[in-house]
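Q&A FORM
Asked by: J.P.
Topic: structure of Molybdopterin oxidoreductase domain-containing protein

PROVIDED:
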Amino acid sequence: SHGDRGATVADVVLAGAAYTEKVGSYANTEGRAQQTGAALTPPGMARPDWKILRALAE
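REPLIED BY: S.T.
REPLY: Here is the structure written out as tokens.
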């Protein structure tokens, strides 16, 4: 979905969701924990990184 020419010749493509498509938490510059929601739905078969790693581990 990002125009990567290498994906067309790859044996495996791991379609990871972009940061705007994920739910997450982080520490801001004041050291406070903050949560963020997904602003967009991942396109196609893109998934959060943890789901890709879980599928690879199975």
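FOLLOW-UP: The longest helix spans residues 49-57.
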